[in-house]
Amino acid sequence: MGSSNTGGGGVKEEGAMDGAKNNSPTGSDSPNDGDTFSEGEKVFAYHGPLIYEAKVQKVEFRDNEWRYFVHYLGWNKNWDEWVGSDRLLKFTEENIRKQQALEKNQLSDKTAKSGRSTQYKPKSSNDAKVDKEDMKNLAAKGKKRKSHPGTEEKDRRLPEKLLISQFPLALKKQLVDDWEFVTQLGKLVKLPRSPNVDDILKKYLEYRTKKDGMIAESVAEILKGLRCYFDKALPVMLLYKKERQQYREAVRDNASPSTVYGAEHLLRLFVKLPELLAYVNMEEEALNKLQQKLFDFLKFLQKNQNSFFLSTYDGSKVTDELDIK
């Protein structure tokens, strides 16, 4: 997936298994249930919670079912794999819309309900809240918008729509890599991370200062807000269950999570930002400008993806706790 290379993501050559084989998906031995796919056909394939464009490279019929060896377009070939027909969809306009809907749901809080119900509880309930002052910092003192009857729900959808539509594809794949490492391969980010979140925010400020020829107060305020959001949101909504014990061990003596964790968990914050920004009382124009600045930061992460993100995780400190569903 992307440039990731793990022992669990390699090619699984199931073709050596015994059983009847038929390389034509239209052969007489094929099961008569659901879609079949051909070699060279462009398809959608489920991987984790999302679906991706893929190409069928091999087709085999064994154990009374079709098996397809697929390559995910744009991904490292180490993620090529054999899948059943239940993992594949035809490449149609309807399924393109389905892919977009799944991506939208994955990047919102709608598909992570237990992120709230199964979260690690901090000692103080006050620490678990992203307070109004932090929101003001992130909003960079945007003008308040007037409240009109019937517009509240529309306003709350705005941040999600804007941020998700601009989320770089490479970082979406990074999120799926992250999910795969922790929940499927049982590996964790080795802590403490270097560069950590504080380091990355400082690097971005240096980057913007050099590019703009001056320190922009609004950028500094946004970065301050992001740091506050991250420190308070991490134990509440940014951890998978398998990572909780590691958090308890790594964040001690009043250490800030932003000095321990890195880009992997910072990127998860951006998945949650639409939900958090939905309650920032700002004019639409100011909100649009804020999100453009956040998108610029995402582009900075993407530009430095190889140096900011790990290519493999540590499999030595995973607990037996269940994953976030």
The CATH class designation of the largest domain is: Mainly Alpha
End-to-end separation in angstroms reads 22 Å
The low-pLDDT segments are 1-33, 109-137, 139-162, 320-325
Principal-axis shape equals globular
In DSSP terms (H or I, runs of 4 or more residues), the helix count works out at: 11
Question: What's the multimeric state?
Answer: single chain
What is the beta-strand fraction? Answer: 5-15%
How many individual domains?
2
CATH architecture annotation of the largest domain: Orthogonal Bundle
Indicate the percent of residues in helices. Answer: 40-55%
Query: Structural class, please?
Result: alpha+beta
Largest sheet: 5 strands, antiparallel
> What integer is the average pLDDT?
73
**What do we call the CATH topology of the largest domain?**
Enzyme I, Chain A, domain 2
Radius of gyration: 22 Å
Strand segment count: 5
Strand order of the largest sheet: 4-3-2-1-5
CATH superfamily heading of the largest domain: MRG domain
What is the H-and-E element order? Answer: EEEEEHHHHHHHHHHH
Model description:
The structure is a single chain. With 325 residues, the chain is α+β, with helices and mostly antiparallel strands. The chain has two domains: 7-96, SH3 type barrels (Roll), CATH 2.30.30.140; 107-308, MRG domain (Enzyme I, Chain A, domain 2, Orthogonal Bundle). Helices cover 43% and strands 10% of the residues. The protein contains eleven helices and five strands, in the order E-E-E-E-E-H-H-H-H-H-H-H-H-H-H-H. The relative contact order is 0.15.
